[in-house]
Structure formats: structure tokens, C-alpha cells
Amino acid sequence: MNDKVKKLLYGLLSVSSLALFVVVWVVLSHAEGTMLPTPTATFSRFIDIMQNPISKATLPVHIWVSLRRVLIAFLFAVVIGIALGVGLGWSEKFNAFFGPLFEMIRPIPPIAWIPMIIIWFGIGETAKIVIVFIGAFTSIVLNTSAGIRAIDPLLISAGKVLGANRRQLLVDVAMPATIPAILAGIRTALSSGWMCVVAAEMIAARQGVGFLIVRGQEIGDTALIVVCMLAIGIVSALLSLFLTKMEGVLCPWQFSKTQ
Amino acid sequence: MSENDNVKVRVRNLTKCFGDLKVLDNVSFDIQKGDFVCIVGPTGCGKTTFLKCLVRLFSLTEGEILVDGEPADPKKHNLSFVFQNPSHLPWLTVEKNIRYGLELKKYPEQLIRERTEEILGLLGLDKVRNSYPHELSASTVQRIVIGRSFAMHPDLLLMDEPYGQMDIKMRYYLEDEVIKLWQATGSTVIFITHNVEEAVYLSNKCLILSQKPTTVKEELKIDLPRPRDIASPEFVRLREYVTSQIKWW
């Protein structure tokens, strides 16, 4: 089988899974007494919310509001998370000091922080950003520190015998070797951040997709809920696609040019 | 005293244990400046351990190893180490891998460029200079690492079975290249190999190690004229002698 045929076949497989999804959706939504909106109803609800704002915002605005919260929190999470992760992975002293504390705080689900965060920061933007930050930060720390610990000792030895000092070993050897692990952490962080923003918005917000879902629940607008759920899924998938591209740019050494 | 001044590496009463396992047992020897020393011995006898002790990747249990009269320090001494397994930096292209050691030493850009070009040519890596190591074969990757070491023009070159992965043609070529480098730069070379023919071909002194716990069984001077003929009776005699020394401990 040549490559073109193979590609076409795999493309068809992907399309058919989506088609199957729609078919199951149609069947379920037409069943007796169902609360699931039909695909057509969902689509027309989608068109409607693109034009007629809810809480002063159309769907793209709601998505953007949520996305902005994620991205701001994410930026902080990346910077602080990588720094802390490098510290934990690279320095035994730092790890001895912070490691146990981090291990204890880490398993607390971000959502469990919501009440305290709202008490501390109110219900404004800061509170939501902090919640998303908590959700995104831990996986970056974990992946970074694990990545640094997993470096092939031979590479460190090679750096040492070439005369690298400890700082050069970190910057020239350890950090580049850890980029793939950090990117894997970032991928997890982005999706858990996106989950957290929806959760945070479901509890207290005036705009954002999480808010929109809760509004749909309050007024019994199932089509609106489904539109938001699909929007969340699609945005997530796009973010993930973006990260895959980033991996290619940041770690060209992991991908063959020739094959 | 003049004898002393000529010592590049002095090993005194070196003992190295890993827990209860004694690997090196009270080893002492000197390596003169400009020597090409091959270390041979049975598999697992601690050849690699010795080199790693020398560059302080391992701490010594007892005794001392001095390079130019002081403990070896890669930041201070111009030494170079080729590990048994490829130790290239995978995120750097071939050219940047070769440059890396020179850049660490903060040599002027002009010199770095000259050396890099020289090495790329010498090791036939010119065509793949912009490739990443994972795109290349294992033996090519090892050539990058060898190139990185050669580029330093080290005055102490340590090689741990560097040619193990090479096919025979490449090995012969690189054996001659390391001799050329040694002769051109007047460096001291310590070369570990399990290939007796290689040891007799390269070295002017051969250290034959015993089985664990390891001691130096014999220091053998090899003063055959160069270039050496591996088929000459004298060469064959030495090769057979070394082989028998390794075999019959």
C-alpha cells in the first residue's frame, strides 16, 4: 500500500468517526422524552448566539474572555512553574526544603481552592486567574523536575569533562535536554487550566463559556449548553494542535527531516 | 627530578570500591608526557572506572591521581574524554556539537571556526554539518564525539573504547587519525580498548590489567617503528603475547 492511499484511508477513518458521532447524536436526540437537543437545534442556537449577545457578549467574546483568563494564568504558571521545577530537579537542597511542601499542596484539586480564593480575592478577574494558575502550575513543576532528574547522566558527564561549570551544565545541557518534558507539562497544564477556568466561571462570573453553560442550565436551554461544550472541546483541540506545532519549532532535534 | 617533570599522569595507590565491591586495588603507575598508552584487560576489569576516577566523575576511595602534579580538573586542564557510548548533545547540530567544547573554553571565534572546519573535513562530517545527530548512524554520531574531542587539541586525551561501534575500515582510518593528532599536538593519550591488535597498533606503552580487584599486571613498552605493519612477525608476536597475558591471569 503506498503512502497516498494510506493517508486517504486514515483520513476516511477520522471522518467516519465524526460521522458516527453525529449519527448517534441524531438518533439519541430524536428518542422519546430525551433532553438532548438535535444537531440542527444546536446549530441554529450556535448561529443565534453568534449574533445575539447573552450578558452583553456573543459566543466569540465569551470564548475570548475565558481564553484570556487561561492565557494570563498560564503565562505565570509557565514562568514560576519552570523555575520551581528546575529548582526541585536540579538542587538537592532546594528539593529537600520545598519538595515535601510541594508534595503536600500538589494533590489538592484546584477546584477545592475556589472557596478560599473567592474569600481572598473576591469574584473578579484575579480570583479566576489564580484558580487557573493553580490548575496549570503543578503539572509544569512536576514535568520539569522529573525531566531534569531523568537526564542521561552521560550527557552531564560529557559536559563536565568538557569543562562546563555548574551553571553551564544547567543552561547548556540540562535545560535543553528537559525541553520535551517541559512541553509535555505545558500541554497538560493548558488543558487542566482550560478545565479550571470553566469550573471557576461556573461558580462566579458574568462572562465566559463556564458562565454561559450555567446560564443554559438555569433557563433550561440545552442547546446553549451543548454549543458551549462543543466550543470548549474545539478550543482545547486547537490549543493542543498549536502546541504540537510549537514542539516542532522548539525541538527540531526530535523530528527527522529525512524520514 | 627530570624524570618527575615529565610525568603527565601519576597514579599512586589508587583504590576504588563501589560499596563492598573492590574494583581497583592499590594501583600505581606513571604516564609520561607524550605517551600513547593503551589500557587492555579482561571485560569488566575496571578500565572505564579508572578513567572516570581520573577525571573525577567518580571519587577515589583511596590514593591519588595527579595530572601535571594536581588533581585533574576539566575546567583547568586541557583534557578531553571520549566515552564508550555516544555522548553528543542531541539538540545541537553536528557543527555545533563540535564547537561546543571550544566555546566552553571561550576560545576566539576565529580559532573555533578554523578548528571546526578542520575537524569536519578530517572526520568526513562536512556534508552532514547541519544535521541533527538522530538523523545519522551510530558510527557517524560517535565520530561527532571524537571530533569534539580532537577539536580541543587536548594535551591529555582520554578515550574509552571509542571505536567499538565502527566498521573495520572506519576504525583503521580513525586509528591513523588519532596517531596523527597525537604526533601533531604532542598530547598524551590514554586509550582503552578490548581489541589487542588495536592496542599494539596504537600504543607505545600498553598497560595490561588483571581481573577484579584490578591491579596493573604488566607495563609493556611497544617500540615498533611507525607506521606499523600489522602483518609483521614482530607485531604478531607482541599481539599474541598481550592476548596470552589477558587470557592467563
Provide a quick synopsis of the model.
The complex is a heterodimer of chains A (259) and B (249). With 259 residues, chain A is mainly α. Chain A is 81% helix and 0% strand.
Structure description:
- The complex is a heterodimer of chains A (259) and B (249).
- Chain A is mainly alpha-helical and 259 residues long.
- Chain A has a single domain (41-47, 59-252), classed as Orthogonal Bundle (MetI-like fold).
- Chain A contains ten helices and no strands.
- Chain A is flat and about 70 Å long.
- Chain B is an alpha/beta fold and 249 residues long.
- Chain B folds into two domains: 2-78 and 155-247, P-loop containing nucleotide triphosphate hydrolases (Rossmann fold), CATH 3.40.50; 90-153, no CATH class.
- Chain B is built from eight helices and nine strands.
- Chain B has helices at residues 2-5, 47-54, 94-104, 109-122, 138-151, 168-185, 196-202, 233-247, and strands at 7-18, 21-32, 36-40, 62-67, 79-82, 156-160, 188-192, 205-209, 216-221.
- In chain B, the strands form two sheets. Chain B has a six-stranded mixed beta sheet, sandwiched between helices.
- The longest helix of chain B is centred in the last third of the chain and has 18 residues, at 168-185.
